[in-house]
Amino acid sequence: MSGVALKSIVKSYGETTVVHGIDLEVKSQEFVVLVGPSGCGKSTTLRMVAGLEEISAGEVTIGDRLINNVAPKDRDVAMVFQNYALYPHLNVADNIAFGLRIRKTPEIETKRLVAEVAKILGLEEYLDRQPKDLSGGQRQRVAMGRAIVRHPKVFLFDEPLSNLDAKLRTQMRAEIKRLHKRLGVTSIYVTHDQVEAMTLADRIVIMRDGYIEQVGTPMEVFNHPINTFVASFMGSPAMNQVNATLVKTEHGYCAQIGDRLVSLPQSQQLEDRVGKEIVVGVRPEYVSIVPLEGTQGVPIEVDLLETLGSEALLHTHVGDAVFVIKAETIDGLEHLHALKEIYFNPSRMTVFDAETGIALNHPTMN
């Protein structure tokens, strides 16, 4: 298998630059997800790897091979699009086999490969059906089968699940994960859905406005966002962010939120911010509704309670900031409606600079 390396990649349309010199290394057999809001440059980056967009500057290599000027068909990559792009007049078997026949693969070998892929994807009983007779999930499996059957060095996925309903997306995510585990092919996957990114990726690349904001494992970017953008984009619900003032007491650094002092994780990066505005970030999952030793409670007002079964989302306010809490419902809902204070565990908090948005206690900063 081969890895993919992007070195100082730029994409411009006339005087407008949409990808600004990004660097990224995808290791052999790794599953990397590019995620970000619409217009951040993730699909453009993928299309440059595929050869569907010309590279304005920089280099793309697959293995040890520079592919900047290599035709898409000769790059040994296979792409799965948001649009299934199946040939409506061909049955499932012929759709899967189409690329092999274009490459003049012997028919005996073509049939063997199609049967192999159909077994992997659970399409054996559908090989004689036309695309119009398939569900959305089945069509997407056919599209993946057409990519898999070529045994490419790299798989490229461009929002392949966007056209499916919620239940099918969940099923297809699991299938893609199992497929990657079985085949072990280097994969780059583009999505705007951070849940897909979290569940599928070995590493996540968060992009904004043509730049890479952060690269890390799902838990790294979830627990240690590099800035307020990543904190607000990754996670569902997003990380809560509350404006505060940094103060230093005999017990260490604290955030002053209203008239309460909340203990913070201790970091040498906080020393020169004492007395200045900061942003305190806390995930909804890590907010405590019971008192914690050594920390003051923060007053809240419960605006709305969303019941999700075993847990509930409490939509509240901390000062002027909207604040969401995820809590278990095993003890009923009455005490949640009556909640007046919440508590923060310092080890679960992120402290951001109010001006730059950069995380001051990120592991790379200490």
Task: Show the helix and strand layout.
Blueprint: E1 4-13, E2 16-26, E3 31-35, H1 42-50, E4 57-62, E5 65-66, E6 77-80, H2 92-102, H3 107-121, H4 136-148, E7 154-158, H5 166-183, E8 186-191, H6 194-200, E9 203-208, E10 211-216, H7 218-223, H8 228-233, E11 240-249, E12 252-257, E13 260-263, E14 277-282, E15 287-288, E16 298-299, E17 301-307, E18 311-318, E19 321-328, H9 334-337, E20 341-344, E21 349-353
Parallel strand pairs: 3-8, 3-9, 6-7, 7-8
Antiparallel strand pairs: 1-2, 1-4, 4-5, 9-10, 11-12, 11-14, 12-13, 14-21, 15-20, 16-20, 17-18, 18-19
Q: Name the CATH class of the largest domain.
A: Alpha Beta
What helical percentage do the residues reach?
10-25%
- Supply the number of helical segments: 9
User: Could you say which overall geometry the principal axes of the C-alpha atoms support?
Assistant: globular
Note the gap between the termini. Answer: 36 Å
Describe the structure.
GO terms for molecular function: ABC-type transporter activity; ATP binding; ATP hydrolysis activity. Pfam families: ABC_tran, OB_MalK. This is sn-glycerol-3-phosphate ABC transporter ATP-binding protein UgpC. Residues 4-234 form the ABC transporter domain. This protein is an alpha+beta fold. The chain has 2 domains: 4-230, P-loop containing nucleotide triphosphate hydrolases (Rossmann fold); 231-365, OB fold (Dihydrolipoamide Acetyltransferase, E2P) (Beta Barrel), CATH 2.40.50.140. Helices cover 24% and strands 34% of the residues. It is built from 9 helices and 21 strands. The chain has helices at 42-50, 92-102, 107-121, 136-148, 166-183, 194-200, 218-223, 228-233, 334-337; strands at 4-13, 16-26, 31-35, 57-62, 65-66, 77-80, 154-158, 186-191, 203-208, 211-216, 240-249, 252-257, 260-263, 277-282, 287-288, 298-299, 301-307, 311-318, 321-328, 341-344, 349-353. It has a 6-stranded mixed β-sheet, sandwiched between helices. Strands 13-12-11-14-21 form a 5-stranded antiparallel β-sheet. It has a 4-stranded antiparallel β-sheet with strand order 2-1-4-5, covered by helices on one side. It starts with a strand and ends in a 13-residue tail after the last strand. The mean pLDDT is 90.
